[in-house]
Specification:
By secondary structure, the chain is mainly alpha-helical. It is built from 15 helices and six strands. The protein folds into two domains: about 130 residues, no CATH class; about 170 residues, Orthogonal Bundle (hpI Integrase, Chain A), CATH 1.10.443.10. A hairpin with a 4-residue loop joins strand 1 and strand 2.
C-alpha cells in the first residue's frame, strides 16, 4: 500500500505543513484551507511538489535558521512579519516571479503608520538578503524596494509635564518605571529585563550576551533617586524582574502601551518610553553635556546617533552659546 505524507501543525509557526521527500511545504494556518491546498499539492506532478524556489519554502529556510540562531524575541519578530507576507501572496509564487510591488501591496493593505510599514518591509528584505548571502538564491529579487522614511520620536517632555504625569501615579508601581526611565535614559527593553543580579554599585550592568548588539556590556549609571528605587525593588524582588505591576507581574511592551493609552485620554497624546529616553538625551545636550559623554550614557558605540537624531539640539545649544559669547 502506498504511503502518503500527512499534514501536521507547527505551533511555533501557527501553520499547517506537509513533508514530502524530506522537504517541508507550508500550507495554511486554517485547517480546512490547509487540507484543500494539500489535496492540490498531491495532485500535481512530483517535480512541482518539490519546487525549492517557491517563496514559502525559501522563507521557511530563513525562519528555521532564525529560530535556531537568534533569541526567541527576534525570531518571533521575523516570524510575525514574514508569515504575514506569505499569507498575502499566492502560495505558488516563486523567487523568479517575486517583484518589489508584492511587498508594497502587502503593507499598503494594512492601516499601518510609516514606522510599522518600514519594519515589516525590513524584515522581508533581510530574509531575502540572508538567503542570497547563504547561496540559496542568486540575488534578492526586492533590492529595489523603497522603504518609508524612518521616523523619530522627537517629543521632548518638559520637567513640568513630567511632574504632572508622575503625580497621577502616586503609589502605583508604574511610577517606578517612569522615574527610572526619566533618570537613566535606559532603553525600554533594558527596563523590562532588569533584575537584581544586574545591579553593581551605583549602576546596572548587563553582560554582553544580554546587551543590545551582544558585543560589549551595557552599563547604565544611576542617580541617587534611581539607585534608591532600585535598592527598594531589590529588597522586594531579590530574584526575577525588578519592575512589575501592582499584581507582581513584570511589565511588558503591551502592558506599558496600554497604560500610555489610558494616559492619552487625560493628556491628549500618547507617549512611550522612547520619549523619556529622547528627553534624557535632549536635556543632557541642552545642559551642555559633551556629546561623547552623552553617547556613553545612552549606550551608543559612537556619537553618530547623537549627531543624526539630536543634531538640531546641539546646533541650538551652540547658537545660544555663541550669543552669550558675543554679548
Amino acid at each position: 500500500m502506498p504511503h502518503f505524507p500527512k499534514p501536521f501543525f507547527r505551533s511555533a509557526r501557527q501553520c499547517w505543513f506537509v513533508e514530502i521527500d524530506g522537504k517541508q511545504t507550508k500550507l495554511c494556518p486554517d485547517r480546512h484551507e490547509a487540507l484543500r491546498l494539500y489535496g492540490e499539492l498531491m495532485a500535481k506532478p512530483r517535480a512541482a511538489k518539490l519546487a525549492s524556489d517557491s517563496i514559502a519554502v525559501l522563507m521557511d529556510i530563513f525562519l528555521d535558521w532564525t529560530e535556531q540562531h537568534r533569541p526567541g524575541r527576534t525570531y518571533e519578530w521575523y516570524r510575525e512579519r514574514c508569515q504575514g507576507f506569505l499569507d498575502a501572496i499566492p502560495a505558488t509564487l516563486t523567487i523568479r516571479e517575486l517583484k518589489p510591488f508584492y511587498v508594497q501591496q502587502w503593507v499598503d493593505t494594512h492601516r499601518w503608520n510609516d514606522g510599522m510599514k518600514r519594519g515589516a518591509m525590513i524584515a522581508v528584505k533581510r530574509a531575502f538578503n540572508w538567503l542570497a548571502k547563504q547561496g540559496h538564491i542568486d540575488r534578492s529579487p526586492i533590492t529595489g524596494l523603497e522603504l518609508p522614511p524612518q521616523g523619530h520620536r522627537e517629543r521632548v517632555i518638559t520637567p513640568d509635564e513630567y511632574k504632572s504625569i508622575l503625580a497621577r501615579y502616586e503609589g502605583d508601581p508604574f511610577a517606578d518605571l517612569l522615574e527610572l526611565a526619566w533618570d537613566t535614559g535606559a532603553r525600554a527593553q533594558e527596563l523590562w529585563k532588569l533584575e537584581a543580579r544586574h545591579v553593581q554599585g551605583a549602576a546596572w550592568v548587563f553582560p554582553a550576551k544580554e546587551a543590545k548588539g551582544k558585543r560589549r556590556p551595557r552599563i547604565i549609571h544611576l542617580t541617587d533617586k534611581a539607585l534608591a528605587i532600585t535598592q527598594r525593588l531589590m529588597m522586594k524582588y531579590p530574584t526575577g524582574k525588578l519592575l512589575r505591576n501592582e499584581d507582581g507581574v513584570p511589565w511588558t511592551r503591551h502592558a506599558v502601551s496600554c497604560r500610555f493609552l489610558r494616559l492619552k485620554k487625560k493628556i491628549g497624546e500618547k507617549l512611550c518610553l522612547t520619549n523619556f529616553r529622547h528627553t534624557f538625551c535632549s536635556h543632557a545636550l541642552m545642559n551642555g553635556v559633551d556629546g561623547v559623554v552623552v553617547s556613553k550614557l545612552m549606550g551608543h558605540t559612537s556619537t553618530r546617533m547623537i549627531e543624526t537624531v539630536y543634531g538640531h539640539l546641539t546646533a541650538e545649544f551652540l547658537q545660544g552659546a555663541l550669543k552669550k559669547a558675543t554679548a
